[in-house]
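RECORD TYPE: protein structure
NAME: Cobinamide adenolsyltransferase
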Amino acid sequence: MPKGQPSTIPDDGLTTRQRRNRPLVVVHTGEMKGKSTAAFGLALRGWNQGWSIGVFQFVKSAKWRVGEEAAFRGLNQLHEQTGQGGPVEWHKMGEGWSWARKKGTEQDHAAAAAEGWREIARRIEQQRHTLYVLDEFTYPLRWGWVDVEDVLSVLRDRPGYQHVVITGRDAPQELIDAADLVMETTKVKHPMDSGQKGQRGIEW
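PREDICTED:
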């Protein structure tokens, strides 16, 4: 993709504008850190374009207030006060419909995760957001808590102009095959390899 130009022009009957404005399914997977960070960077670009942003975290603790969450909640306040950017909603375990890894059986967690996905599917049908960040969503897919084929069907048939970014390790191959853009992070070196724990401003 030299200078941002596509390497090939498909014979799909679409104009350059139509092809450029096609909504995407994006997958960030791999063993190394940075998958969510890259997704939130994309969300920042979308916010600046005035998009409605929906962030849905499936694994991180409700008690763990990550820096990105605080920043995006602040951006939502800025939007409400000044009209700058777009609205932001941030949902994670312990809030509303989302699920938590708390006391209960695996069946309880699976049912709650499935309900979380159903809420996202309802929002997609209603075209509630322009960009959906489904953070660490690969895990309930790999665990069988959410049906991969159902997710692929909803993503394939989603109406309007809605981008979806899914993050997490070990993305199912079916999801990778269906996505428009797939990034895989690979570890070359990490401070934890030499015994250093995560630190403020780097990991959270």
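COMMENT: The radius of gyration is 18 Å.
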